[in-house]
UniProtKB/TrEMBL annotation:
Source lineage: Bacteria, Pseudomonadati, Pseudomonadota, Gammaproteobacteria, Oceanospirillales
TM segment ranges: 21-38
InterPro entries xref list: Pilus_4_PilV (IPR013362), Tt1218-like_dom (IPR054402)
Domain Type IV pilin Tt1218-like: 38-114
Coiled coil (UniProt feature): none
This protein's UniProt keywords: Membrane, Transmembrane, Transmembrane helix
Keyword rRNA processing among UniProt keywords: no
One Pfam family named in its UniProt record: Tt1218-like
Protein name: Type IV pilin Tt1218-like domain-containing protein
Length: 176
């Protein structure tokens, strides 16, 4: 009784109301959805980084093959590279020029390298493709590795290398 006199009327609320509980659940749900969105974004960026890393390794492999077969640079740049992706899981091209008893010309070795690089790109990248060509009329050679829906020819523009944010390609320019 004395409390009623001191404060007027007693507060009759004894716990949380349904409205407060629903607001708390709404705030929690928004937080969980935000976290899930961040996880999805992180997974996509991680996959993109992995694809770029694989493409860089394939391009480096191509450069090393060209250096090992130095006299056949024109064969690599003028060759008809596969214009469609290699079916993933297919057997690697047979090693026609490998072994001490076999003798192959530089052009034969370049032909096998082209098949091997196309096979590597198709098996290590989604819709992966590779091409080696002269870079837009300069004295540079471009090793182009693309994946996804992008084709190697889409990686080069009239101004040079495509720098679009959604570009799915790695281009290595090498001076001859």
């Amino acid at each position: 009784m004395q409390l009623m006199k001191r404060y007027g009327v007693l507060n009759k609320q004894a716990g949380l109301g349904m409205t407060e509980i629903l607001v708390a659940l709404l705030v929690l749900a928004i937080g969980v959805l935000g976290y899930a969105g961040l996880q999805l974004s992180a997974l996509k960026k991680s996959e993109d980084a992995n694809n770029r890393s694989e493409a860089t390794l394939i391009a480096q492999d191509a450069l090393e093959r060209i250096q090992a077969n130095d006299g056949s640079l024109a064969t690599y740049t003028s060759a008809t590279w596969p214009t469609s992706t290699i079916v993933p899981g297919a057997d690697a091209p047979p090693a026609d020029c490998v072994g001490a008893a076999k003798s192959c010309s530089g052009a034969d070795m370049a032909s096998w390298d082209i098949k091997q690089l196309a096979w590597s790109a198709g098996n290590q990248l989604p819709n992966g493709m590779v091409d080696i060509r002269d870079c837009n009329g300069s004295s540079m050679v471009c090793v182009i590795v693309s994946w996804g829906e992008q084709k190697p020819e889409d990686c080069l523009t009239s101004d040079g290398v495509s720098t679009a944010e959604d570009s799915n390609c790695v281009v290595m320019e090498v001076s001859r």
